[in-house]
Amino acid sequence: MTTTAPERKLTLEDLSILTTRYRVDPSKPFRLKDYDPTDDAGLGLTKPEGKALLKQAKKRLSDLQELLYANSEASLLIVLQGMDAAGKDGTIKHVMSGVNPAGVSVTSFKQPGPQELLHGFLWRIHISAPSSGRIVIFNRSQYEDVLVTRVHPELLEREHLPGEVGTPAFWQGRFDDIRHFEHYLSRQGTLVLKFFLNISKDEQRKRLLSRLDVKDKRWKFSSSDVRERQFWDQYQNAYEEAITHTARDYAPWFVIPANHKWYARLAIIETIISALEDLKQKPPVIEPGLMKSLDAYKDELSKEAG
What we know:
306 residues, alpha/beta, Rossmann fold, 5 strands
């Protein structure tokens, strides 16, 4: 009688392939159509298995974030981009729920106001970048200025810009500015990780419908979501060009399959963990004199209990 060996459960180590699978290689031509929104890397993970691994990954991320905060030598900027209903808010909620909120903040960039329009498009971005030891998440980012304005160039009329706008040279200049800005952040010790949540047009339709089907979720729905959906192809082209011009080793892009929310979250958290592990952080070293003082405080507090 033969018996079948039980299938081995996947571990976090098995997910290491996700950190390179979706990374855009700047040395190769980039085409968004080459990335499948339903891809699972051949892992065959089920949703319950993915959620269990996500729980483990949150604990690992929490430990790494604690070291980042304690050492205050580096920082992390996470950029989340995607079409409406791609899952940006949910990703922030589920991926970062286990970390210390004292060391993490989220900035959501809406349409710039009058004061912001009087400055260059990177002004409000720069002042929101992370300080040492912190993690900052951009829910939308500097890329809105080469995406929304690319699809709706009439918005540029509000920006008090000199010379001709909307020309190929104008857009190339913006791509150059973004690259230089991200390179500057990198040289100051900031890890820059950029994620495009890649969903299919049909999956977006389903998610928008779900917001209308459930009355308690209708607050999430905006009529602009439907209007912008009409420009789907233009946005895909704009994303493709933006990623092509700004994917660099010092600020990599990751095109994450996002038709399954749980899988997207797992791929993103694993990528963040890998980047923080590459820092090879250790707990801060305490000077001998301070260590002796702390030992004395410990003895004093222990005696109180007696």
